[in-house]
UniProtKB/TrEMBL annotation:
<dbReference type="Pfam" id="PF22725">
    <property type="entry name" value="GFO_IDH_MocA_C3"/>
</dbReference>
<feature type="domain" description="Gfo/Idh/MocA-like oxidoreductase N-terminal">
    <location>
        <begin position="3"/>
        <end position="116"/>
    </location>
</feature>
<dbReference type="InterPro" id="IPR052515">
    <property type="entry name" value="Gfo/Idh/MocA_Oxidoreductase"/>
</dbReference>
<dbReference type="InterPro" id="IPR055170">
    <property type="entry name" value="GFO_IDH_MocA-like_dom"/>
</dbReference>
<protein>
    <submittedName>
        <fullName>Gfo/Idh/MocA family protein</fullName>
    </submittedName>
</protein>
<feature type="domain" description="GFO/IDH/MocA-like oxidoreductase">
    <location>
        <begin position="156"/>
        <end position="243"/>
    </location>
</feature>
<dbReference type="InterPro" id="IPR036291">
    <property type="entry name" value="NAD(P)-bd_dom_sf"/>
</dbReference>
<dbReference type="Pfam" id="PF01408">
    <property type="entry name" value="GFO_IDH_MocA"/>
</dbReference>
<dbReference type="InterPro" id="IPR000683">
    <property type="entry name" value="Gfo/Idh/MocA-like_OxRdtase_N"/>
</dbReference>
């Protein structure tokens, strides 16, 4: 069985997914749509796909079995629900939205449809993350330190808080998702977000350029995650876990584990986008959603924490992230 893929939104991230899918057996890109119709036509011609004039036409075309949604988070209205209603399997890039009410409604439709669904939390597919998860399974994590510092993307929507959600929602979400994946859910967040320099360059910017979030996990562990787009000269990202008897860090593609018995450093050479997309293809071909390392609901839960941090920064008080509701039908 060859899985036919469509793309809604064909910017740089989407094209990277397309190039990855072309390396995967039993995967074919057949349909694309972008609000920029010139770009849509260019990508279609480049990869032998058909370009559509609207996302509705693509979804109802009968040309796809599965869909990548790669639009910015502010441009998601109706897309996932329409795909799910047609039985089209779904990978929705992160972040999956900016309103928890809307995202939870999407989640309900997706889960009740019976489709296979996942999101863009690709770092879960690193082999070193699997090793970290196995190591931490019987450990008591007491402190977590995480960070993402890099330069500012050049697109306008990213620096508008109402369109991107800010760096924690749009980028550092990967590091926050690793915390959830490896150490459990968040109980409370307390955030400070500031504009220190961004408005000197972009006077209309509403997003922050420095932000930090203190948090408590449901396990009782505490921690901090810091984000900044002022990392032009010193970008880095990572997550560190401390316990009374161990230290574990994932810094980029490098894992370090230190305890009484070992001091291990290992660098991954895995293409995590390839591993994620190959797993998505296989999950569809064999109807095995359990092959995936996260679903749409996981993405919604991670979003809930990041949006709670935004709320905390706005009101100056700690916030408890929204909880997932039970569903009558679960894949």
């Amino acid at each position: 069985m060859t899985v036919r893929f469509g793309f809604i939104g064909v910017g740089g991230m989407a094209e990277h997914h397309i190039q990855t899918l072309r390396r995967i057996e039993h995967a074919q890109v057949t349909a694309v749509y972008d609000i920029d119709q010139i770009r849509s036509q260019e990508v279609a011609e480049k990869y032998g796909a058909q370009s559509f004039a609207s996302y509705e036409q693509l979804i109802h075309s009968g040309e796809i079995d599965a869909l990548f949604v790669c639009t910015p988070p502010f441009a998601r209205s109706g897309i996932e629900e329409a795909a799910a209603s047609q039985g089209i399997h779904l990978l929705s890039e992160k972040p999956v939205g900016l309103s928890m009410d809307e995202v939870r409604q999407k989640e309900r439709v997706i889960r009740e449809s019976g489709i296979i669904h996942t999101s863009g939390y690709c770092l879960r597919y690193l082999d070193i993350v699997a090793k970290a998860k196995a190591y931490l399974a019987d450990k008591q994590v007491d402190l977590v330190l995480a960070y993402r510092v890099e330069g500012m993307p050049g697109v306008r929507w990213w620096r508008m808080l109402e369109q991107s959600g800010g760096q924690l929602v749009e980028q550092s979400t990967h590091q926050l998702d690793l915390i959830r994946y490896l150490a459990g859910d968040f109980a409370e967040v307390n955030a400070i977000h500031e504009q220190r320099y961004i408005r000197n360059i972009y006077p209309d910017a509403t997003a922050y350029d420095v932000g930090t979030v203190s948090f408590r996990l449901e396990s009782g562990a505490i921690g901090n995650i810091t984000s900044s787009s002022l990392g032009k000269y010193a970008g880095r990202s990572g997550v560190e876990f401390f316990g009374h008897d161990f230290y574990l860090a994932i810094s980029g593609a490098t894992l370090r584990i230190k305890d009484e018995h070992q001091d291990l450093t290992e660098t991954s050479e895995v293409d995590f986008y390839y591993e994620q997309n190959k797993t998505f293809v296989e999950a569809i071909r064999f109807n095995k959603p359990d092959l995936l390392l996260g679903d749409y609901s996981d993405a919604a839960d991670t979003l809930a924490v990041t949006l709670a941090a935004n709320e905390s920064a706005a009101i100056g008080k700690p916030v408890v992230p929204g909880r997932r509701e039970p569903f009558a039908k679960i894949n």
